[in-house]
Write a structure and sequence with these properties.
single chain; 636 residues; alpha+beta; eight-stranded parallel barrel; six-stranded antiparallel β-sheet; 12 helices; 34 strands; 26% strand; globular
């Protein structure tokens, strides 16, 4: 093993010793297979990069985050492009506002950062469906990430829009993109379809040219490297702090005998799932292993450098033995926090980088200012079932049997399924999802009274009572589609019939809920008057909306919203969907509120959808610090 390390080091020394005797009059970026390194403008080049996701950070803060990365000593960033973030509706692409990818690339360029672009079409990233748009699932037999005709047609159309936009940003064309990844960790996918990868290689070459450095990234196993690599795409791998660096790079060498050493995802932290402990990776281990790799001349991208936030419904999920949804915060225990604040881990990384290359002089930009705005008391607007005219203005889709979210083209958020009891149920009668067909949580009410819930993989039966003809409302929540593995064909809603005793429930009215549209349009604050709720409607249990206002105080600083004793739901501020809260399950207890969302002059509208039970106090608290690590251990 020591001999292998010496050989690697010797190769890097050779690479470092060659000089600019190659012609560098024009911009170029390439692989020097003879001397095992990258060449930038004809000179040996080693990148030290960090991952940052523009889709998880408000546009207002892009420059701030990029500057902090530059001042740490990074010379590159790594960027995913989530297809579904830009094409939520088939055929309609959005590259404006927080989706303005080219503006983000331009800011990175102005800051002095090169870019390693990862355009997918699949990205994983703990992002909803791994970045693939849910409308692909309208083709019920589609085989994602394969040479399936329907999938390939959609990929062709998307990349024909995206890649021409990226071509002008290639380093060789005067931009800052030095390398481009094809697909992502394909070796970990069951299909192992080389025809699919060949097709992508052809597309990328067609749109980006023959001189662009294309690469693949795969996990540190022989199986993953075998299925994920392809001739003509430079093979790189990823691993974290618990890996033997020499052994890992020896594996890369088996698949790429010559060329630069590359760890495309060196894990500085890890993600959190609801109900699991908060993930932490020791800063000393990160800095030690980073130093080992840089000493070998390896090119390293740190994943993540700043994680950011899964605003709205963009969090993904995993499904190994059971379905596990990713939390709203993507803090990742990264060197920059969810709010973009430098950490001790960042300073330790900067010290390591300074041993190998010059770090920019000058102070690190400070943390953004935070403010504890204090308590706000909310009031109830109404139960979900009483607000359908507002939230589902087009009315229900009627069907004898349940339809999925995808079948009614409601891809994210919530759908309400309504039917009636087929007979009197004087004794508790089991309501069953016999085929585990609730994806992902169903909140069950009869005549507006909340009775309980069904949950995917966890709670497949509950008891109900009632009289024939009573209204049955089942609000189904999409908790994020699976983003990794063989189960990314993750349909949402009621995927199969529900059985009530001996009866199959039929005659459904299915309401697609445009909650975000209603709130963005000003509801419930615009012209709202205090509603008078019947006592039995004023129960704190069951899906209901609450509203309040945070009064302006002249500041629009970052803050963190804590919903103590609230159970589970969603929060909007000034029409922006902050994401899910679930303090009852943890570990995340606060939601990040970017300061630019807040007005300094008019009241800030707060809207909460509580799905299970609101506390009697109806208060929420704005704090000046996050609370991300309070797993309660409860299984509910």
């Amino acid at each position: 093993m020591a001999a292998a390390v010496l050989l690697l080091a010797a190769a890097i020394l050779v690479c470092s010793s060659i000089s600019g005797n190659l012609v560098s009059g024009t911009r170029s970026f390439s692989i020097d297979y003879k001397n095992n390194c990258f060449l930038k403008d004809g000179r040996p080049f080693q990148y030290i990069s960090g991952s940052i996701h523009y889709s998880r950070i408000p546009r207002f803060y892009w420059k701030d985050r990029l500057m902090k990365m530059y001042m740490t000593g990074l010379n590159a960033i790594q960027v995913y492009v989530p297809w579904n973030f830009h094409e939520a509706v088939q055929g309609i692409q959005n590259f404006t506002g927080d989706r303005d990818l080219e503006h983000f690339l331009d800011l990175a360029n102005q800051t002095g950062l090169l870019v390693i672009l990862r355009p997918g079409p699949y990205i994983c990233a703990e992002w909803e469906m791994g970045g693939l748009p849910a409308w692909l699932l309208q083709k019920p037999n589609i085989i994602l990430r394969s040479a399936d005709t329907d999938y390939i047609e959609a990929v062709n159309n998307w990349l024909a829009v995206l890649l021409p936009k990226m071509k002008r940003w290639l380093y060789i064309n005067g931009g800052n993109i030095i390398t481009v990844q094809v697909e992502n960790e394909y070796g970990s996918y069951y299909a192992c379809d080389y025809n699919y990868m060949r097709h992508l290689r052809t597309l990328f070459r067609l749109f980006l040219g023959e001189d662009t450095v294309l690469f693949t990234t795969d996990g540190n196993t022989d199986r993953e490297m075998t299925c994920g690599t392809l001739e003509g795409l430079y093979a790189t791998l990823d691993f974290g702090t618990d890996t033997n660096v020499s052994v890992a790079f020896k594996r890369q060498r088996r698949f790429e005998p010559k060329g630069p050493l590359v760890n495309s995802e060196f894990y500085t932290g890890w993600l959190d799932h609801w109900g699991d402990p908060h993930a932490v990776v020791d800063a000393q281990k990160v800095s030690r292993v980073l130093g080992e790799m840089l000493a070998m001349g390896a090119n390293v991208n740190m994943y993540m450098f700043e994680g950011g936030t899964n605003f709205g419904y963009w969090n993904g999920a995993d499904h190994d033995t059971r379905f596990r949804s990713v939390v709203t915060s993507y803090d990742y225990d990264a060197p920059l926090t969810e709010a973009g604040d430098p950490t001790e881990k960042l300073l330790a990384i900067r010290d390591v980088i300074a041993q190998f290359m010059q770090v920019p002089s000058g102070p690190m930009p400070p943390a953004t200012p935070k403010f504890a705005y204090g308590f706000v008391t909310l009031r109830k607007v109404g139960n979900m079932s009483d607000l359908l005219n507002t939230l589902s203005p087009a009315g229900p889709v009627e069907s004898q049997y349940p339809l999925t979210f995808e079948e009614i083209k409601q891809y994210y958020g919530y759908v309400l399924y309504r039917t009636t009891l087929p007979r009197d149920l004087s004794e508790p009668t089991p309501l069953i999802s016999p085929l585990n067909g609730v994806h992902d949580r169903a909140y069950v009410s009869i005549n507006g009274v909340f009775l309980g819930l069904l949950e995917r993989d966890t709670a497949l039966v509950m008891n109900v009572t009632g009289r024939q003809g009573d209204t049955v409302d089942i609000l189904v929540e999409n908790m994020g589609r699976v983003n990794f593995g063989s189960k990314i064909n993750d349909y949402k809603g009621l995927l199969s019939n529900l059985i009530l005793g001996k009866d199959v429930l039929t005659g459904w009215k299915i309401y697609p809920l445009d909650i975000d549209g209603a709130i963005a349009g000003g509801w419930p604050h615009s012209g709202s008057k205090k509603s008078v709720l019947a006592p039995w409607r004023d129960s704190p249990a069951g899906p209901a909306f609450y509203m309040g206002t945070l009064q302006p105080n002249g500041l629009s600083w970052d803050t963190f919203l804590k919903l103590s004793e609230w159970t589970k739901g969603q929060v909007w501020i000034n029409g922006v969907n902050l994401g899910r809260y679930w303090p009852a399950r943890g570990p995340q207890q606060t939601l990040y509120v970017p300061g630019p969302l807040l007005s300094t002059s008019v009241p800030n509208n707060i809207t909460v959808l509580e799905l299970e039970r609101a506390p009697a106090h109806l208060r929420v608290l704005f704090m000046d610090r996050p609370h991300l690590n309070a797993t309660t251990g409860k299984s509910r």
